[in-house]
Amino acid sequence: MNLSENAADREFRAQVRQFLAQHLPDDLRQKVINFVWLNKADYECWHNLLADYGWQGPAWSREYGGQGWSALQRKIFDEECQLACAPRTVPHLNMICPVLNAFGTPAQKQRFLPDMFRLKTWWCQGYSEPGAGSDLAALQTSAVREGDHYVINGHKIWTTWAHWSDWMFALVRTNREVKAQEGISFVLIDMKSPGITVRPIISADGCHDLNEVFLDNVKVPLDNLVGEENKGWTIAKFLLGFERAEMAAVGLCKRLLQFCRKATQSHYLEGRPLWDDALIRHRLAELEMRVKVHEWTTLRVLASEEAGTTASAAPSMLKLASSELQQDLTRLLRDCTGPRGTQYLRALRQGEAVELEDLRAFDNALVANYIDWRKVTVYGGTTEVQKTITAKTFA
Ligand SMILES: Cc1cc2nc3c(=O)[nH]c(=O)nc-3n(C[C@H](O)[C@H](O)[C@H](O)COP(=O)(O)OP(=O)(O)OC[C@H]3O[C@@H](n4cnc5c(N)ncnc54)[C@H](O)[C@@H]3O)c2cc1C
What we know:
Layout: H1 7-23, H2 26-33, H3 40-53, H4 71-83, H5 93-103, H6 106-116, E1 123-126, E2 142-146, E3 149-157, E4 167-173, E5 184-190, E6 196-201, E7 210-221, E8 225-226, H7 232-246, H8 250-266, E9 268-269, E10 272-273, H9 278-307, H10 314-336, H11 346-349, H12 358-372, H13 383-394
Parallel strand pairs: 1-4
Antiparallel strand pairs: 2-3, 3-7, 4-5, 5-8, 6-7, 9-10
Bound molecules: flavin-adenine dinucleotide (FAD).
Residues 124-128, 133-134, 158-160, 210, 375, 378-379, 381-382, 384-385, 388 line the site of flavin-adenine dinucleotide (FAD).
């Protein structure tokens, strides 16, 4: 198994770097560096820059207007973007696009895919419910056929960016008489439909990304069913594989490691940089090794994907390793801030001008990172769930 980049890969990496150096606007980059919340316009700006350059749909096949990049090229692209502090590409597109490619009708593909490139339409993921998270098959939101449409009633929760979204891809129950997994369907819901209420959930750091979505007699045309009725569980699992594989985030781990190096040099304890402290250096060295190991594991998974021999638990293993690593990196960052880390200014994170010395502003970003990153071992399937999937695969 050859895990090193060949000449074409290195050339591609250089091209991505050049694109970022020339086209990533500095204000957007500064926002990412300082961990300021990005708004809808920021993401739209980023996607349009990519589309203008001809790099629309970085993760998509050529057949549907994407780049047709190999898994390794996608990894290189993501890594360079993350290291350059570019915004992430909106993850929902990399979930719904493969689903429509694989299961959608020609009419659905034609209707929905072209508008995604420039974020003309925003999507949210309506999977979780108050009683159905890890045990997703327990979902209760019901869809009942009436003539040429379904009538949908239920309650979705933790729906990221529902307040920005035009459409939701959702799992609904279409049959209660069969085994839970066999009575689920995958539907596309217009968020402007009468009967939809979106209520914000504010996160621990004060951010508004998450929402509850209430569906009260919402009419959805039968044309918006993806795949066959009651076969939505197969689509749900297909999509979760993409969601978890994306979470390997090698570039992000490398960026957090760079921040760790910077923080251990810029922060002092009793007149000496933290870098001088043997315990801190030990933690840093351990994290560096884990980032390296995570990168090699990701490359091995990508290589086995190309060879068609990937273990089914691979996305879960990558998600697990990456999320725990990200949390440990952000823990070291927070520890570097010392007593200053006990204060957190939400206004700075919102991008408001606050008079502060540079180091204090940097500390605020590190604390914000720490608080925000607690979520990564929950979304996309919790740590315990990933461990169970992995254990079952190799049992
Ligand atoms: C930031 C964020 C964004 C999200 N965005 C979305 C979104 O856009 N759309 C969407 O549909 N959902 C979204 N989610 C929801 C996410 O998918 C769920 O939070 C996740 O699946 C866990 O479900 P739960 O919160 O109901 O926790 P639960 O499933 O109730 O789990 C609670 C605890 O019990 C443990 N546990 C549960 N079952 C088992 C088991 N069998 N064995 C061992 N331990 C177990 C879990 O590991 C966890 O520690 C988001 C979540 C977060 C945090």
